[in-house]
């Protein structure tokens, strides 16, 4: 597994450094429109997804995926190592996006109030909401990875690129038909949820619960991927 | 002494291709050249040898132990093998030095100073990106990676492809040094048969998924020959009894007929006026595969 993590981050290093620079610049513009809450959520979601698809694309370059299996590493270690790499990238992205948002707010706090755009006013960006929104977006991205990773491990990036959107559409269609949106809004369930989130530290409670639930799904997805990857031929 | 690789009756079926009854062995101290046309089954055989694919029939043994794809026991066996496939496989975003990090993580026996020496010998800067390497330089990086953990067996798939003649000679010198210790061996699949003439001990030829011949290299390059005949001389040669029935391979071309004979000295003695050249591995393979067996 160590071999996978080392090779994944060796391959990602230059891209990650570029991405950090891009995120710094983009966050300045995004925060003006979306505030620190939206910026943190967007960056927290963007980085892990970019890492996943970069790694999957690099796997197929020059036969790296096949060559890697000639190293003393089992297929299970390849799969679990890849999940670990993506999880590490996700945690780093989570911490980075929070640090970026809080740093941005700190800088805004040093400026005269008249200079600070409304979207970045402290009242619009409570810390609990920033953490909750970032955890929510990371959770959504991780659910996408829970679906995408087994398909990528089984079919490779090229084939999975055709299959993943199909599966996502089917999942979304299933969810829409299962959860009646009109019913949810008409009966005040959505407004009740928003009101609950705005109460006390419930954003943090929701964030913790979301990440815990997603982590369980992520681990289950890793075992499914390991099973699928065993049968793959190169 | 236990063979480094033992492949017995290997079979693998795909929709459009089948590998059947492949037998191949690499003894310690030997270089086995694995030749054949494109799509003949060389890479499939190598993949099975490395446990990348599960054979449908037959057995593969590495260092005397059966290979079971996906097993953790295979990890121990793979740690004793250095592999060079037909491309520089490292991710294009990595730097040359990153291969050393990957090697250190993968192999308990990784020798960082040996890797650095090999990079220096090959003129590779650790700071250079893999994407900036030419094909030849990429192959040198892969070869340095394969050698830096002191493997007992090298499996090379077109390892010298893309190298200029001088670089190929350097690589062949390194491979000679590698096997000189006596307990190591090389399985080398290549289309550059002149490399095998310089280094191989045994030649195995596969065609259409089956082994066509297995022969010591010296039998091919020292004993066998190609008789350059006019049309009328072919039948005389074949009827003379100098060549056993079925042992000659005849191929006609615009300017005459080439006959592959197993003993060029016997033919030269019996037909002093006939030109009988030494056979190259390429001659031997081409005439065996394309010539008419007589």
From TrEMBL, chain A:
InterPro entries, per database record:
ABC2_memb-like
Q: What UniProt keywords are attached to this protein's entry?
A: Membrane, Transmembrane, Transmembrane helix
Does Lyase count among this protein's keywords?
no
Instruction: Give any Pfam family that matches.
Output: ABC2_membrane_5
The transmembrane segments are 12-34, 40-58, 79-108, 128-151, 163-183, 203-224
The organism's superkingdom is given as Bacteria
Q: What PANTHER family does UniProt report for this protein, alphabetically? A: MEMBRANE PROTEIN, MEMBRANE PROTEIN-RELATED
Q: What is this protein called?
A: ABC-2 transporter permease
State the organism of origin.
Answer: Adlercreutzia caecimuris B7
């Amino acid at each position: 597994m160590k071999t996978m993590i080392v090779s994944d981050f060796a391959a990602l290093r230059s891209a990650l450094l570029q991405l950090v620079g891009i995120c710094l610049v983009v966050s300045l513009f995004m925060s003006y429109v979306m505030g620190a809450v939206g910026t943190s959520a967007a960056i927290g979601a963007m980085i892990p997804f970019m890492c996943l698809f970069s790694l999957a694309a690099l796997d197929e370059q020059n036969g790296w995926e096949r060559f890697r299996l000639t190293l003393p590493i089992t297929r299970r270690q390849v799969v679990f190592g890849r999940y670990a790499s993506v999880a590490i990238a996700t945690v780093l992205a989570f911490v980075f996006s929070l640090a970026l948002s809080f740093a941005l707010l700190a800088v805004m706090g040093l400026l005269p109030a008249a200079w600070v755009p409304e979207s970045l006013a402290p009242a619009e960006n409570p810390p609990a909401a920033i953490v909750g929104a970032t955890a929510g977006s990371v959770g959504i991205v991780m659910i996408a990875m829970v679906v995408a990773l087994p398909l990528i491990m089984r079919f490779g990036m090229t084939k999975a690129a055709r299959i993943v959107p199909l599966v996502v559409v089917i999942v979304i269609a299933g969810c829409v038909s299962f959860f009646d949106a009109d019913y949810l809004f008409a009966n005040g369930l959505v407004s009740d949820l928003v009101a609950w989130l705005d109460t006390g530290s419930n954003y943090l409670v929701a964030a913790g619960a979301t990440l815990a639930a997603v982590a369980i799904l992520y681990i289950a997805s890793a075992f499914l991927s390991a099973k699928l990857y065993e049968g793959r031929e190169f | 002494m236990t063979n480094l690789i033992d492949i017995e009756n290997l079979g693998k079926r795909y929709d459009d291709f089948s590998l059947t009854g492949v037998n191949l062995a690499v003894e310690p101290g030997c270089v086995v050249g694995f030749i054949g046309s494109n799509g003949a089954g060389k890479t499939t055989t190598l993949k099975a040898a490395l446990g990348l694919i599960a054979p449908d029939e037959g057995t593969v043994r590495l260092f005397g132990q059966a290979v079971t794809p996906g097993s953790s026991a295979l990890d121990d066996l793979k740690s004793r093998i250095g592999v060079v496939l037909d491309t520089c496989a490292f991710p294009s975003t990595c730097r040359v030095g990153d291969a050393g990090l990957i090697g250190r993580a993968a192999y308990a026996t990784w020798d960082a100073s040996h890797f650095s020496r090999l990079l220096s010998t090959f003129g590779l800067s650790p700071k250079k990106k893999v994407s900036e390497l030419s094909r030849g330089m990429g192959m040198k990086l892969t070869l340095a990676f394969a050698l830096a953990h002191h493997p007992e067996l090298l499996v090379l798939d077109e390892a010298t492809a893309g190298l200029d003649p001088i670089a190929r000679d350097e690589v062949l010198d390194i491979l000679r040094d590698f096997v000189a210790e006596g307990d190591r061996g090389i399985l080398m699949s290549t289309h550059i048969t002149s490399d095998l003439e310089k280094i191989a001990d045994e030649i195995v030829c596969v065609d259409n998924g089956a082994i066509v011949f297995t022969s010591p290299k010296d039998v091919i390059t020292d004993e066998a020959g190609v008789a350059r005949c006019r049309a009328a001389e072919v039948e005389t040669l074949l009827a003379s009894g100098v060549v056993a029935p079925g042992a000659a391979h005849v191929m006609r071309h615009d300017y005459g007929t080439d006959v592959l004979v197993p003993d060029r000295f016997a033919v030269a003695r019996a037909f002093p006026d006939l030109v009988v050249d030494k056979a190259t591995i390429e001659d031997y393979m081409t005439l065996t595969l394309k010539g008419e067996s007589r």
